[in-house]
Records
---
Amino acid sequence: MSSLYITQGEIAVGRDHDMVISTILGSCISICLWDPVAEVGGMNHLLLPDAQTEGAQTSSGAVAMDRLINEMMRHGAERPRLRAKLFGGSSMLSGRTDIGLRNAEFGRKYLLNESIPCDAESLGGTQARRLRYWPKTHIAKMRFVEEAPVLEKPVEQAANDVELF
């Protein structure tokens, strides 16, 4: 079996029967796309829905989706036949900005705006997800990883007024 692991900002596309693409998602999302006629599929690992900095461009929502779709089309997929599965978007840091929710909203909105049917989704919650995707058949297997720890503010301790030179 050919296994390929992707991380934040990466994509993978394939059509081999024994190929599996895998990743682990926290607040990030992965959108798995598939063309049932060409029997080609692909997956991305999207970090931020609307990254503005140059270094994060490859993992912003629209860029990640364009890269995935373009690579699939190079393998024979046609945009009107695409189908999707959507995973991730957990709230990993309690009390912090909920980037997971923003990522999940981006994924749903993107698929709706592009008229790509979503066959399955697992979004939100507080647990990370381990995802495996077989691009030839559009089979996805997801399982939750243990509960994310709740981060607490450190206890402030009195400082010693010693000055070091």
---
Amino acid sequence: MTTSTTPRRQLDLPGQTHVAEGPNDHTGMYVMHHALRRDLAAFAAATEATPLDDARTWEALAARWGRFATTLHHHHTAEDSLYWPVLEQAVGERGTPADRLEVAAMSEEHEGIDPLVTACTDAFGAVAGHPCDSHRAALAIRLAGLREVLDQHLEHEEGVVLPLVQRVMTAEEFLGVERAIGRSYGTREIPFVIAWAMHGLPREAREAMFAVAGTPYRVLHALFRRRFERAEAVAFRYVRPAG
């Protein structure tokens, strides 16, 4: 195995807390984190702004939340099964005992996030099934709680774990992880995930993602972007669009 020392230009997106400089290209991770933060902000705004008597929009929001929850779960599962084990091995070879604790904390934090996502899912269902001020308030509280905990997790990952990746993972290890995670998405999931991840990104970031993911990613985005945006316009009709 060889370790590249040539630094790559890394993305610095809205909401991102740290840029992990180094040879491994974290474009995909930063784009995913941007989408997670963007969605939680949009769901919080929609919860406040959507009229309780607009049943169609609440149903669309609940369905869209389901896609968010599934995508977040897949992202964390892929990290736990495909990313962190490779990083842990690299830490064993080139890192420190303190580094190992940081890797272990990632999966532990995922376990703490899962119940909060489930609580939000139940709260969306409650508003859709019986729209009232108390159900809306409960949903807002649960979204705020999840947003706080997920923000802390993403900050930890961006500020500590991704710099650790740059320090201990070889180019071969890193590319192997990236490819394995790419293969973990089912054929039916891919169009949504691509359109979802690219939504609202600054142009420079979109081009960086296309450069990393290749022509098929660009083509699928062109094919499915408008369908995704039409659905977004229904679910978040009372929220200023992300872009």
---
Amino acid sequence: MKRQLPYHGWCFVCGRDNPHSIGLTWYVDDDGIMTSEFTLNEAQQGPPGHAHGGASAAILDEAMGLVVWAAGHKVAAVNLEINYHKPLPLNQPLILEARITQMDERKIFSTGEIKLADSTVAVSGRGIYVAAPKLFENVRLKGNES
């Protein structure tokens, strides 16, 4: 069964409060696999008719970190690797999947893929995350003071 994850305020990738957000909605299943179906448009354009590489990198950055957060870990990225296999077309449906692949004493590893409608992998990534609870406690405290 899939459950929808909450929106993240001003997040560049998925925040409903941000008028410039890419606007993704995230779902996670019982196996911890996160998915999203979305369409990019001219606001994310790089080469004519295709997404900017930074847009796909931002999406994978958010997805690979968020799948770790959804598993209950307050982390920050320490390394991201993005591989571009095919250009992402604009105004066509895309599918994203992210999952945790390994956990050790200090690091959590995750991967993500953005696929074309025919399931061809267009962009893939790998992230390494470490616990950073204090980083996010300070942000919450500042937000509560205003």
